[in-house]
Amino acid sequence: MKKIAFICLLKLFSLNIIAQEINIVPLPAYVKLEANKKSFLINTETQIAFTDSSLINSAIFLSEYIQKYYKVNLKVTNVIPTKNFVSLILNTKISEFDNAYALNTLDNGISITGTSGAGVFYGVQSLIQLLPASITIPLIVPPVNIMDHPRFDYRGMHLDVSRHFFEVDFIKQYIDYLAFHKMNYFHWHLTDDHGWRIEIKKYPKLTEIGAWRNGSIIGLWPGKGNEHIKYQVLPTEIKITPKDAVIKTDGIWHGGFYTQEQIKEVVDYAAKRYITIIPEVEMPAHSMALLAAYPELGTEPGKKYEVAQTWGMMNKYNNVLQASDSTFKFLENVLAEMMDLFPSQYIHIGGDEASKIWWKQSAVSQQIMKKNGLKNESELQSYFIQKIEKFVNSKGKTIIGWNEILQGGLAPNAVVMSWQGEKGGIEAAKQNHKAIMTPEDKVYFNHAQFIKEDSLTAGKPSLLAHVYNYEPVPAELNAEQAKYIWGGQGCLWSEYITNPAKVQYMLFPRLDALSEILWSPKEQRNYPDFQKRLKTQFRRYDLMGIMYSKRHLEN
């Protein structure tokens, strides 16, 4: 009798494991628990087999994950054994969708078949989420049948390394976080007012001078601290601040940059995870670090600029680049080096928050406008962006810009990244341009994730539910226009993020929500179900040593 009770208890325990493990994020298009089949047990004798040499990176990724978190070393082979295997297979005919995969638990192993190498890799990520969220041997994989594919072609996440610099090892971790969530683009914000983070061999002062600042404000703007720097606020642009504002900084030397060899290392690392890195070099605004190194490219002759110590565009300290031939030649040389480092089809050139006051008061700018028949400074902005686009296009690449590049007329081939709400993305789509939706009020993860946050963040909230319930395709677009919504992206600006643990805290679990709105079928999204699946995801984050807010466990 005791033996029968024990067997029943064991079966119940096994069913509970199965129920807990079918909690994949993002939610697959189709997932079914095969109740009439047995679970598969991964043990020390299990082999990971790939049938095409292009899949070896996926096989190694899975092997290294299991070794790292479960201390089990699985053999990787190019021959599928007759039993006890995880097979990785290419087959373009299994689905009509790009980058799709099928994952099946078999009697003698696990099969992951993809329409592409990326599809197989995404299947590997789902298998990882079927593994136990705690260290246990053997690893029980429930009997499942999964058919899956992404909803959007562009599934991106951004990281600002200008405000605060993060080392290469952490950038690789960040890329792994994106891979785990089936994201496929990493937008690397490499330059801004507060630091130039990429080595450009033709212009060494960009990193010798532009990569370092003398301090950072403490707390929300205008900050508090011991060092005092005085800026003249432009009352015509900012009405809520006094004419003379005192910005207080901590006086701590901060900076760093990535060598070109490090850039190549990170690009290769991402490519093995089917993630394309889109580098960003800001222009014509957010260029104080550049101007600190090469002041002759600014609008004020003889001006000595400094790498910015305070955030935002709210004071006269933040200049813009002059739209001169010498500036364009400089930027072309910078972009040429960058394009050699990044194989991405896309280069992000910023284009946001360019204060027109600088061009208005610059005699040279006014002469440029007159020479080129430009009616106002918005048209000068468009002229600037189009000059850059022409050069980038000549190298076989395409520019992406923030939605302000619409001002004065959109460059012919540009992709618009809409951050000031959805208006820019809608306008771009209606002009038959690709648009990436990243509205600040929904998917800016530097914003508070609770109404009352545990730590210092940007003021506006971006709650988990708001992220999850965001729909990237605006309702006002018709079916043809909606095709130009390429996808969406989350942004993580680092003004108030100084270390990797804080990055993790701000990223998780909002990245889970973002991944689901970009990957999963719209009609299958269900917030209560997502919250249920998050409980297993949190246990997995505990296993992986990832920081997240425990307050989400209270919901």
Would you mind describing this structure in some detail?
The protein is of the alpha/beta class and 555 residues long. Among the domains are: 2-148, Chitobiase, domain 2, CATH 3.30.379.10; 414-555, TIM Barrel (Alpha-Beta Barrel), CATH 3.20.20. Helices cover 34% and strands 19% of the residues. It is built from 18 helices and 25 strands. The strands form 7 sheets. An 8-stranded parallel β-barrel has the order 10-11-18-19-20-21-22-25, surrounded by 5 helices. Helix 2 packs parallel to helix 3 and helix 4 (168-180) packs parallel to helix 6 (260-271). The longest helix has 20 residues, at 2-21. The relative contact order is 0.11.
